[in-house]
Amino acid sequence: MKVGLVVPQAGVNATKENLITFIHLAEREGFESLWVYDRMLYAINPQQPYPGTPDKREWPESFKNVLDPLTTLAFIAANTSKVNLGTCIIDMIFHNPITLTKEFTTIDILSEGRTICGFGIGWSKDEYLAANIPYEKRGERADEILQVMKKVWTDDIVEFNGDFYKIPKSIIGPKPIQKPHPKILLGGFSPKTFERMIKYGDGHIGVLAGSFEYFTNSIKMFNDAIEKSSGRRRRNRKDFDLTILTYPYLFTSSSEDDRSSHRPPPMTGRTIDEIGSDLSKLKSFGIDRVILAVNAEKDYDVNETIEFVKELRKFCE
Fold first, then answer.
1. 20 to 30 Å CA-CA from 6: which of 31, 37, 80, 285?
2. C-beta pairs of 138-143 under 8 Å, 24+ apart in sequence
3. What pTM value is reported for the model?
4. DSSP string covering 141-163, please?
5. CA separation, residue 83 to residues 35, 113, 125, 303 (Å)
6. Which structural domain range is residue 149 located in?
7. Do 264 and 212 form a contact (C-beta atoms < 8 A)?
């Protein structure tokens, strides 16, 4: 199971110095990939709770301070030479599809073909409002974005006439180094996510944030979607990348780990072995890649974080 890391892109310790130190150490230690994500804003009075926490109206503190993902990814490309570079995820709905495609193409060229495109459609109505994009028909809009992106990446003459996006007959270059295009991984939780993956994508980015029972259902939808499509599209499980984003956390005090009232969330524990046992479970599910995301809030230390994830990586080998 490959191991990727989310870089210190968000939180009070998302600094140039920490980012450079982190990516150099991660590449030197042989981690497979480095990842960034999209967060447009921190809603003070959000219209919805944060996903996975239905009673929690307040969003994570780190969302108040987030470096732009694609600018950060380009910076990482310029300061590394081997490690793969991914997004987990970019909310494609909030971006013009041609501009977004050219941004990923540029990073793919400058990194010499190391880009992985993780896309989602977003969940925050506050971000939709700020982007001036209707919340309705977001799935149909996402389908068109992916169609446009693949045309821009592969067609010498690009033309598109959709309900949401239109492109007059044009030449749009350059093309990415990876052929036919960088790998597209789609995030989401609904059956339509997996239908979209079959039609337009090369894999899925899931999140281990709730219970393992809920996670198991997502894996079943992933496998079922591939099985249903295998006959007519001649693609099977090995043609799809299954990547899971996780948030490992080591409890530092007994007050943080109150097991009398509830089970601790996955990827948390009092010891490395407790967290590692969840990574072993993920490996048993046939996960291709796990991404480890450690919050860069107060008390964050780059060297300690790298040592922490190195210990966790042993359970993925």
1. 285
2. 138/93, 139/192, 139/196, 140/164, 141/93, 142/92, 142/93, 142/196, 143/196, 143/199, 143/200
3. 0.94
4. HHHHHHHHHHHHHH-SSEEEE-S
5. 10, 10, 34, 18
6. 2-316
7. no
- Structure tokens of 255? 């007050």
User: What's 302's domain CATH number?
Assistant: 3.20.20.30
Q: Tokens 């995030």 — which residue? A: 187
**Number of domains forming the structure of the chain:** 1
N residues, the chain: 317
